TrEMBL record:
Entry keyword annotation includes Glycoprotein: yes
GO molecular function list: glycosyltransferase activity
Recorded topology in the membrane: Single-pass type II membrane protein
Membrane-traversing stretches: 12-29
A Gene Ontology term for the protein's cellular component: membrane
Classification lineage: Eukaryota, Viridiplantae, Streptophyta, Embryophyta, Tracheophyta
Chief place of localization: membrane
Keyword Ribonucleoprotein: no
Cellular location(s): Membrane
Swiss-Prot/TrEMBL keywords: Glycoprotein, Glycosyltransferase, Membrane, Transferase, Transmembrane, Transmembrane helix
Protein name: Uncharacterized protein
Superkingdom of the source species: Eukaryota
Pfam families: Branch
């Protein structure tokens, strides 16, 4: 027979257990229930990146501002020739490095190389001379994640810190190839001074009417991007670009937009999660639209994309006519790089490297510009060619 004390105690015990269980449920629920978002960037990675970015910003500020005692000599001393920083973002072997070696040959005083290789990737091929010792401290990257933005910013910061002469920053992947000789690219970058105050511009694709923008804007949730990124200022473009030093610093310094873009996407909207194709064009279009060309120098074929991947060229497709077709552009300049090429394409590409890809011709380099502008650009390009051949510094025409 149940005692009266037990009868009266039971509701009390149940109430206590209920009160205790509520906080336990709230504590354990996130661990027991499936997550609603994709993985976020680890706090440790974020802290290390911020420290790197601060050093890059401080270094850039100090190198750009002459001290009072040296101000007079600053404007009269010989300045080093501007360099191009090639930033390779990879998760596999740099199969096309023999082709890039041909591209770089004889111009090592005009460029630097930096490679961000996913630490979980297995690289079996030994690096060729230009790539040896050029790997930066890297962190894991994956699709549908802001980690690709972090990797690009990491490369930019490292290049800013490494050499003040780095004035242009070209982001490439392991599947990219050059379409022109190095002098053609160098001259195109130097001859473009249509930005504000005659400064150079960044070659970055910026679009605002792509059909997928709506779904991608809301990939992190409704109104998550507000107020920093209004819908009508959300932009889209290729993740492969060539930035000026001014814009590289702008990207590394940014915290406002990064707070939004680093947020993970919802799992149910994974298919609309491509933050690396939105962060850079959105940031630069907000802060300096006149300093950007609005188009990229990297050709990609999206005619038969598969699960977000562009067309991959196979060995049977490689030919002189393909290279000439890939160069064609609606912009002022022809395309300078192209992707995506399968590793097996190395042999046929090397066969036409000297006769086609790296054959030094200027015909067809300037596309879509009026006659007067073409003559102006060619004149500046010839000046730049003189700097390349004679390894001398160009005059001060406002590198930005």
């Amino acid at each position: 027979m149940t005692s009266p004390a037990t009868t009266y105690a039971s509701p009390f015990v149940l109430s206590v257990l209920l009160l205790v269980s509520i906080p336990v449920i709230f504590l354990l629920a996130p661990r027991l229930l499936p997550p609603k978002t994709l993985p976020a960037i680890p706090d440790a990675d974020e802290s290390e990146d911020l420290a790197l970015f601060r050093r890059a910003i401080l270094s850039s500020s100090s190198s750009a501002t002459p001290t009072p005692s040296s101000a007079a000599s600053y404007f009269f001393r010989r300045r080093p020739a501007p360099k191009v920083a090639f930033l390779f973002l990879t998760h596999s072997d740099l199969v096309f490095s023999p082709l890039w070696e041909k591209f770089f040959r004889g111009h090592h005083h005009l460029f630097n190389l930096y490679v961000h290789a996913d630490p979980y990737s297995v690289l079996e091929l030994p690096p060729t001379p230009s790539f040896r010792g050029r790997f930066v401290p890297a962190k894991a990257t994956q699709r549908a994640s802001p980690t690709l933005i972090s990797a690009a910013r990491r490369l930019l910061a490292t290049a800013l810190l490494d050499d003040p002469s780095n004035q242009f920053f070209a982001l490439l992947s392991q599947s990219c190839i050059p379409l022109h000789p190095f002098p053609t690219l160098y001259n195109a970058l130097l001859s473009d001074n249509a930005g504000p105050h005659g400064h150079h511009r960044s070659f970055i694709e910026i679009m605002d009417n792509a059909y997928m923008i709506h779904d991608r804007y809301y990939a992190r949730g409704d109104d998550v991007m507000l107020p920093e990124v209004p819908y009508d200022q959300f932009r889209f473009g290729s993740q492969f670009f060539v930035l000026t030093r001014k814009h590289a610093i702008m990207v590394v310094r940014d915290m406002k937009l990064w707070r939004k873009f680093k947020l993970p996407c919802l799992i149910k909207r994974r298919d609309s999660c491509y933050p690396e194709e939105h962060y850079f064009p959105t940031l630069l279009d907000m802060q300096d639209p006149e300093g950007c060309t609005g188009y990229t120098l990297t050709r990609v074929n999206w005619t038969d994309q598969v699960e977000g991947h562009p067309h991959t060229y196979r060995p049977g497709e490689v030919s002189a006519s393909l290279i000439k077709e890939l160069r064609k552009s609606n912009g002022t300049y022809s395309y300078m790089f192209a992707r995506k090429f399968a590793p097996e394409c190395l042999e046929p590409l090397m066969e036409i490297a000297d006769s086609v890809i790296l054959h030094n011709v200027t015909e067809g380099v300037y596309i879509g510009c009026d006659v007067m502008n073409k003559h102006r650009v060619v004149h500046r390009a010839l000046e730049g060619l003189n700097y390349v051949r004679n390894n001398i510094s160009p005059p001060l025409f406002g590198y930005s």
